[in-house]
Design a protein that fits this description.
Radius of gyration: 21 Å
Oligomer: single chain
Helix content: 25-40%
Shape: globular
Strand order of the largest sheet: 22-24-1-25
Distance between the termini: 9 Å
Bound molecules: uridine-diphosphate-N-acetylglucosamine
Number of helices: 14
């Protein structure tokens, strides 16, 4: 029953380092299913989803534990005896459990999962995963309350995705690792986290070309031919964006390291158009802001466009900017649910379908709000930095799923933020 309490503050100064990306590490952990032995991941974020995925893999036959001397390092010991049925209570907790489909089918020819959970942005269908895997020879049980699929031998296929889905691209790449022949995925998603997964699989012995492009080709290699590796998780561009948004609204001069500026190009350009001065520095990005922001229009798009995960942060910046910004959500129509919470802080936002009109106000005022999901929760913390008085955020467990010590990191650059425990009602 923790709360995060934020007071208006600024300017923020100094530097903050972000750890590895949630949306990469969870999939890299799953890659340990391919090879018996000890896999090592470094730059691992201390987030609760890593613990959930660790327990999920534990139930499948991979023992996951942190290095006792270095919490950023994770050991994943694949016993060589992998089970293909995942426990429902864990599958229901994280969206990334869907990423078990490709590796389990590829390595074991069978998978049974309950429907995956994760942030509630409305319907999150998996029709493209199913269509692509079916083209590779997978047979799905038609039951609606779980996913069960089999394929004695997967074969290569030429697959064109209707939309560059992150999850579908990852599942098709991972399914193709041991498929017979060549699989080509066209209109593939190009997110840096997918490139990170493909790089790790390649280091393990998979044959993948076109990494980071919209056409990825995988030449299947025999089962049992992959080997464990040590791999560093790519830096978290959404956590980096969170600290940049904090400086943008509170003012200051902060360098954010750990994430590559090339992975945030369009976002940085848009933030710069709003007023802050942004420069790429070795290992990260430096932002100088006087706290004055002007409105711009924003639309979310697949990478390299502005990620839907950045949007709550941009909405918060627009809430205190001069002028009116129109925000268009092209990925998840239901992903405006936090607007009500921002409005409690005095934001002037009207939504209509997948558009939001944000009229900047002179200032926000603190209130009690609740985090509905990971990114929206972080955006409420950022909003609190610009709100007069005290902002108290509940639903902190959502933020913990994807943020590694947001309170400590913000305090490190001078923000007035604390985490408190309250007794359950
Ligand atoms: C991943 C990220 C999430 C991010 C999203 C988009 C993880 C664990 N989560 O989610 O943080 O917001 O990418 O960058 O990495 N779709 C279909 N059918 C499908 C698959 C997807 O209609 O078979 C739709 C989805 O409903 C959504 C859009 O495509 O509207 C994008 O989804 P996708 O790219 O697959 O996102 P996720 O992998 O679920």
């Amino acid at each position: 029953m923790d709360r995060i309490v934020v007071h208006k503050c600024g300017p923020l100064n100094g530097s903050v380092r972000v750890p590895g990306a949630k949306n990469s590490v969870l999939k890299l952990m799953v890659a340990s299913l391919y090879a018996p032995g000890t896999h090592i991941l470094t730059n691992v974020p201390d987030i609760s989803d890593v613990g959930t995925m660790g327990r999920l893999l534990g139930a499948l036959g991979v023992d996951v534990r942190h290095d006792s001397n270095d919490p950023d390092v994770l050991f994943l010991v694949n016993s060589g005896d992998i089970r293909t049925q995942a426990p429902s209570e864990l599958v229901e907790t994280i969206r990334a459990s869907i990423n078990l489909l490709g590796p389990l089918l590829s390595c074991c020819g069978h998978v049974r999962l309950d429907l995956p959970g994760g942030d509630d942005f409305g319907a999150r269908p998996i029709d493209m995963h199913i269509a692509g895997l079916t083209a590779m020879g997978v047979e799905f049980d038609p039951a609606k309350d779980h996913i069960e699929a089999r394929a004695e031998r997967l074969h290569g296929a030429d697959i064109v995705l209707d939309f560059p889905s992150v999850g579908a691209t990852e599942n098709l790449v991972t399914a193709a690792v041991h498929a017979e022949g060549l699989t080509t995925i066209r209109n593939a998603a190009r997110e840096p986290e997918i490139a990170d997964l493909c790089s790790m699989l390649t280091e393990m012995g998979a044959q993948i070309t076109g990494i980071g492009t919209s056409t990825i080709s995988i030449e299947g290699v025999p089962r049992g031919s992959l080997v464990p590796v040590t791999h560093a998780v790519v830096g978290d561009r959404v956590q980096a964006a969170t600290y940049l948004a904090s400086v943008a609204v509170a003012g200051g001069d902060v360098t954010v390291t750990g994430s590559r500026s090339q992975h945030m190009e369009v976002l940085l350009r848009r933030m710069n158009e709003m007023g802050p001065e942004i420069t790429a520095v070795p290992g990260g990005v430096r932002m100088k802001s006087d706290g004055y922001l002007r409105a711009v229009d924003v639309q979310t798009l697949p990478y390299p466009g502005i990620a839907t995960d950045y949007k709550p942060l941009l909405m918060t910046m627009l809430a205190v900017a001069e002028g009116i910004g129109i925000v268009t959500e092209n990925l998840y129509p239901g992903r405006f649910r936090y607007v009500e919470e921002l409005s409690k802080l005095g934001a002037d936002i009207r939504t209509d379908g997948h558009h939001a009109i944000v009229r900047g106000v002179a200032g926000l005022r603190g209130a009690a709000v609740s985090a509905p999901d990971i990114r929206a929760g972080a955006a409420l913390v950022v909003a609190g930095l610009a709100a007069e008085g005290r902002t108290i955020i509940s639903g902190v467990e959502h933020i913990d799923r994807g943020y590694d010590d947001i309170v400590g990191r913000l305090r490190g650059i001078g923000a007035s933020v604390e985490r408190i425990s309250v007794d359950a009602p």
